[in-house]
Amino acid sequence: MIRAKKKKQTVVDWIEYRLPIFSFIKHLGEYRTPKNLNYLWNFGSIAGIALVIQIVTGLFLAMHYSPNADTAFGSVESIMRNVNYGWLLRYLHAVGASMFFVAVYIHIARGLYYGSYKSPRELVWFFGLLIFILMMATAFMGYVLPWGQMSFWGATVITNLFSAVPLVGEKIVEFLWGGFSVGDPTLNRFFVLHYLLPFIIVAIVIIHITALHVHGSNNPTGVEVKSKKDTIPFHPYYTVKDFFGLGVYLIVFAYFVFYQPNYLGHPDNYIESNPMVTPEHIVPEWYFLPFYAILRAIPSKLGGVIAMFSAILVLFFLPWLDLSKTRSGNYRPIFKILFWIFILNVISLGYIGANPPEGIYIWLGRIATFYYFFHFFVIIPGLGKYEKTLEIPHSISGKL
Amino acid sequence: MRIILGVLAIFWVISSSASVTTPAKPKDQINWPFQGIFGHFDKQSIQRGYQVYKEVCQVCHSLKYLHYRDLEQVGFSADEVKAIAASYQVNDGPNDEGQMFERPGRPSDLFVSPYPNEQAARAANNGAYPHDLSLMIKARKDGANYVYSLLTGYTNAPEGFQISDGLYYNPYFPGRQIAMPTPLTAGQVEYQDGTENSVEQMSQDLVNFLQWAAEPEMEARKILGLKVLLYLLVFTILFYLVKKKIWRDLK
Q1: Which residues of B touch A396 (CB under 8 A)?
Q2: DSSP secondary-structure letter at A32?
């Protein structure tokens, strides 16, 4: 007997021989990470946990939600009033979506500042952007589900964008609606897709992390890891740091859930959807406002749609638009300033997007939209060519 | 840290600007008992507010997401709730003969609406639709102060203001013309506890009632929130200390 010759076999050995799950866990623990990551690097794990929170709360909400145009609004109210802790589930999910975007926006901004998109991490960046796009689609469809006034009219405005496509635009819109206006079939398919997409996001998150683990995390110096002295094992150093960061995040999260649960929403969404009454101003959720402003900045419908999608797609070209040899913004004195101006510009776009497109906001929107693209197509390539960068340290552990 | 705070500040600015609507006239700001982290329901006021709803608003406005049993949460006894429910006729059925029938209400019934449907409501109100009030406080910007201002804000139209037929002047209503006639007049409702029945008092009581109707979970939510925040605070401080300790030896 082969087994008799062996030493006593444990259950762990038995499983490990067939499925190396324990060595995988060991890999996670021993995974070497640059030792100088600052707190901005917390937002990756925070975003991951935010996704899990959305999936878990969403699962329980789906058990009580009814995706039907006649009953959707009432079923959400029933969750709020009649389901045990239903209000908690729903507020966690609604506020959780906003908090998820906060984490992801900081995560993306950190990547922009420290040049995390540069070789050899272009694919990490790509899959990250893909997650971002899927997140936006998921969030948009999720906002439609309560079937309030903003749900209905937001869905009408956004799906109507596709009518800008030449020739087949109208057909595409009817195809999306499953009818001749936003209605019951639209709500049904949005619910199905809203349930499906997060699992696709999970799959892409796994690819995002796998690609990340090939070359490891970038770090504030932007200098690649040279020796083992530059790194520390992920556990316990970053597990404990991530737990601390998570705690801070959850405190902000809990404050909104328990004390300002509707602050980030729109009061009109507590009015049941009514195709006969259009709200005074149709505004999307805050995390879409910068893109909404870009959409409205262009006087033609098709042009606006192209500009809005380009605003996201341009990020995919960033690794080739930014040819600066220096990765981290810390050693790029001019880039550093222009980075913050870019961030301020995006915030301004958000502010403009929240206001009706009248008077001064039209021109502010156009200027800010122009600057958004100017940053990517002129400033970034120009800086790559002409900026005089500071001397970068020899290694992470070297003089900083 | 500075960056994180900056981003949070931004988040704040954008979100607050996201839901700005221009009110016709700045609303009166009342100090409500339900405001703030320790906000609670004033059950006496809510009960009086329910009386105002029952004697005045209910003629036109429904509260379709509330059950009669919910009234127990604001201090009505089980027997009182039974009696309140039984004073309404609920349309039920079909019975074994296939007929719809009327029966006295039970605590588990939803509040009976004054009209069977929107068309009936419009037909009875000169084309205007009296909104359901279950979510009114949440469905308006700064809802509590808005409803209070609206209820107490009826005045004569200023000179030169053209009022359409069948509409009334109210400076707090968007467009300043509202289809609802002045709902409350002083002394209209006789309070059993002897509280003064001025328009302001009745309006405050009604807003307290409607606030509870819109967010019956509010008190439980705020109490649970305190516990959760306290827990998270300890959790976070502990992890901060552990982090400090683990990272201390690192060179």
Answers
A1: none
A2: E
* Cβ neighbour number for residue A14 with a 10 Å cutoff: 10
Q: What is the band of B6 on the pLDDT scale with cuts at 50, 70, 90?
A: low
Q: Give the amino acid at A15.
A: I
Q: Which of B15, B174, B229 sits opposite A251 (nearest CB)?
A: B229
Confidence of residue A102 (pLDDT cuts 50, 70, 90): very high
Rounded Cα gap, residues A175 and A170, in angstroms: 9
Instruction: Report pLDDT for A257.
Output: 98
Tokens of B226: 């305190």
Band the pLDDT of B11: cuts 50, 70, 90: very low
Distance from CA of A9 to the nearest CA of B (A): 35
In a domain, residue A350? The reply is: no
User: In Å, what is the CA distance from A153 to each residue of A125, A147, A163, A283, A326?
Assistant: 33, 9, 16, 9, 46
Range of the domain at A121: 31-293
Give the residue ranges of DSSP H helices in B72-198. Answer: 78-86, 118-124, 143-152
Let me know if residue A264 belongs to a domain: yes
Domain count, chain A: 1
Phi, psi of A123 (to 5 degrees): -75, -30
Strand partners, B140: none
**What CA–CA distance (Å, rounded) separates B104 from B93?**
13
Q: What is the predicted ipTM? A: 0.91
Residue A141 domain-assigned (yes or no): yes
d(CA B164, CA A271): 26
Catalytic residue annotation of A: 213, 217, 241-242, 285
